[in-house]
User: Which sequence fits this backbone?
């Protein structure tokens, strides 16, 4: 009885401390809202004085400004949104639906609370003598500070159960430091006052407390034991599922060295082939000779442009741009890591895409081919026409996904990955030529780049070696279980 009573006492004490923390944060936030709305002179004086001092320290120091902008971007809606999306995909594939719902709802709170409160308070942004950055909308509270404490805090609560005690402490310290740096960057860039950032942090603590309490009520309704979210994570029993991958084996070290050396040799060979083809094309009639229709086809396409085809080609061109390729690649990597529970497929995706990028940029710099001499619908671009980076990246991304998915999925819809690997590059290639951005031989160069580099990655990285049963890498869950998870 004494043990039960002491356990209940400790639980009550933890609950009271969390209520006190959330209540104190709510009180501070309410007071700040009131003072900001009243334009209380002492608060305005501190806020404006600090804004002016930081502006004097930062203005004219470009490296420092670039560093601050990099840090502040870590709290942007784009970065935070992708973190929530990737983590949610991993949780859904691992069938941890309550945790995925918690993460999505908690992150959505930042998107809802920020604009509503900004409009309700209506505070203008700081005015400094030497502006180094500009922010849109009102000032209170800071959206970056609010989003960072909510999203990074929620990620810590969700995944901390998979960490050791020391790992949780390190992760908590990293999150705290990152949130503090993002808040400071907003002050140093002159786009927020100190009270904007402190108010955002207080509101973030309140929202995390509310959503965490709601999650605990859900666990209680299901009959699960009470937890200590900061010490154990939201779902301690999910620890095994939240660990990203299984252990490596000794053979991995030797194979990694062979893969790095072999990939380096193959990179040089593919680069040499691209230069051997591209440089003569760039010199022949200043890059616009009629080799394989390089002049005829772009001119014919330019003469038959219509508004509808312009729009369709724009979508095709965007499907192969850096942002879309990165987005699809991140989601594919999250699904691969969650479903296969091996680092090798993720490394395969990363090495394939970064190898393509380096080959494209290096070959384009050496070849220096002019774009087709027709009107360019995408404007002037700084890179060479040969090879097409859009087409090469699209081929490699969707082909790499097909290489991973088809052997592991036994349902009929696995062939949809093959269809996508064939149709997406065709759409992007047709769009890029239609819009006057590439010659047909530029697309041919992309095919050579993609074929050579994909073959290299498949041979050396062996992304599906866990299905071979030769002991080269630990087995995954098997095609049937992966199919069940992904499907």
Assistant:
């Amino acid at each position: 009885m004494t043990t039960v009573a002491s356990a209940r006492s400790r639980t009550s004490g933890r609950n009271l401390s969390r209520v006190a923390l959330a209540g104190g944060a709510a009180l501070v936030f309410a007071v700040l809202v009131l003072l900001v709305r009243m334009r209380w002179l002492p608060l305005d004086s501190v806020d404006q004085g600090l804004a002016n001092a930081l502006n004097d320290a930062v203005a004219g120091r470009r490296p420092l400004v670039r560093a601050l902008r990099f840090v502040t971007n870590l709290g942007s809606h784009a970065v935070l949104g992708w973190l929530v999306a990737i983590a949610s995909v991993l949780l859904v594939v691992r069938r941890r639906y309550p945790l995925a719902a918690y993460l999505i709802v908690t992150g959505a709170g930042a998107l809802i609370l920020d604009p509503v409160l900004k409009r309700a308070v209506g505070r203008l942004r700081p005015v400094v003598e030497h502006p180094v950055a500009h922010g849109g909308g009102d000032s209170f509270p800071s959206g970056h500070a609010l989003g960072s404490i909510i999203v990074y805090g929620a990620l810590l609560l969700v995944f901390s159960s998979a960490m050791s005690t020391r790992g949780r402490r390190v992760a908590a310290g990293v999150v705290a430091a990152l949130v503090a740096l993002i808040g400071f960057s907003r002050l140093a860039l002159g786009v927020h006052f100190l009270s904007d950032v402190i108010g955002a942090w207080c509101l973030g603590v309140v929202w995390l407390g509310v959503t965490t309490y709601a999650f605990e009520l859900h666990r209680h309704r299901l009959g699960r034991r009470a937890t200590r979210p900061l010490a154990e994570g939201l779902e301690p029993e999910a620890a095994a599922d939240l660990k990203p991958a299984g252990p490596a084996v000794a053979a991995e070290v030797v194979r990694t060295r062979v893969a790095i050396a072999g990939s380096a040799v193959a990179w040089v060979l593919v680069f040499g082939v691209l230069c051997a083809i591209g440089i003569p094309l760039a010199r022949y009639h200043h890059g616009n000779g009629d080799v394989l229709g390089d002049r005829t086809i772009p001119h014919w396409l330019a003469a038959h442009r219509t508004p509808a085809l312009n729009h369709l080609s724009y979508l095709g061109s965007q499907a192969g741009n850096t942002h879309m390729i990165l987005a699809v690649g991140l989601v594919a990597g999250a699904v691969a890591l969650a479903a296969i529970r091996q680092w090798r497929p993720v490394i395969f995706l990363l090495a394939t895409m970064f190898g393509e990028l380096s080959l494209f940029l290096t070959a384009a710099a050496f070849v220096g081919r002019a774009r087709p001499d027709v009107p360019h619908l995408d404007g002037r671009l700084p890179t060479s026409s040969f090879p097409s980076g859009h087409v090469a990246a699209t081929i490699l991304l969707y082909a790499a996904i097909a290489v991973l998915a088809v052997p592991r999925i036994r349902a009929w819809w696995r062939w949809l990955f093959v269809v996508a690997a064939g149709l997406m590059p065709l759409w992007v290639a047709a769009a890029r030529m239609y819009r006057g951005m590439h010659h047909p031989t530029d697309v041919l160069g992309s095919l050579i780049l993609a074929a050579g580099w994909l073959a290299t990655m498949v041979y050396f990285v062996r992304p599906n070696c866990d299905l071979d049963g030769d002991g080269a890498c630990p087995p995954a869950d098997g095609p049937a279980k992966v199919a069940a998870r992904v499907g």
